[in-house]
Amino acid sequence: MNISRVILAAVVVSTDAFSSFHGSSVSQHVSTSTSSLTMKVFDWKRREADESAINDAENFVFTLDNLKPAPGSRHRKKRKGRGIAAGQGATCGFGMRGQKSRSGRPTRAGFEGGQQPLYRRLPKFVGKPMGPGHSKTVYNLIKLDELNGAAEGSTVNFASLFESGDITKSKVGIHKVVTGKKEFTAKGLIVQAHAFTSSAQTAIEGAGGKCELLSPTTGAVLEPVAA
């Protein structure tokens, strides 16, 4: 009799403990499921900033002193070799061994491990070399319609066109005259440049003008372009 009472009491205690535990877990689950999610701003200096004025695009005026990147668009630089906690410690992401883990550049540009590289697999064109050690001459292009504002019989080059405002500044120091999209209407111009296309030369000479080649190093007039 006493044994049955002890067993019954143990069953009641275990049932109460299970119900209390189950109820608390359910309540915790409900409370967490109803919580609102917020997007994390990675820029910690702007997490608490009030940017409601910036979001009003119709009334807010952007100036040089209030421009700033969007939150999370800029990351701090990756610190390598500063311990395993950084994720790029010790080997700095280059692995333990191998050619690509050594100091210095392991292979040259274009190297493909010994197989035929791309610049040797592609077909070549006469007069247009490709591959390492070759480069092409890059010109600043002057269109024929940009010469229309010059006076008849005047000498035209990049400096005179830039001074008159017909063209803008150039990143390269040598210039080439090419045919533009608009019609060439100037007459009797002496055009000086470092190169001419055949169609541009024909148009200039057809309008009573002359083409003069310039030296790419000194800028001096070399000779009139042969027709």
From TrEMBL:
It comes from Corethron hystrix. It comes from the Eukaryota. Residues 70-114 are annotated as: Disordered. Coiled coil: none annotated. Keywords: Ribonucleoprotein, Ribosomal protein. The keyword Ribonucleoprotein applies. Residues 84-96 have a biased composition (Gly residues). This is Large ribosomal subunit protein uL15/eL18 domain-containing protein. Residues 73-82 have a biased composition (Basic residues). GO terms for cellular component: mitochondrial large ribosomal subunit.
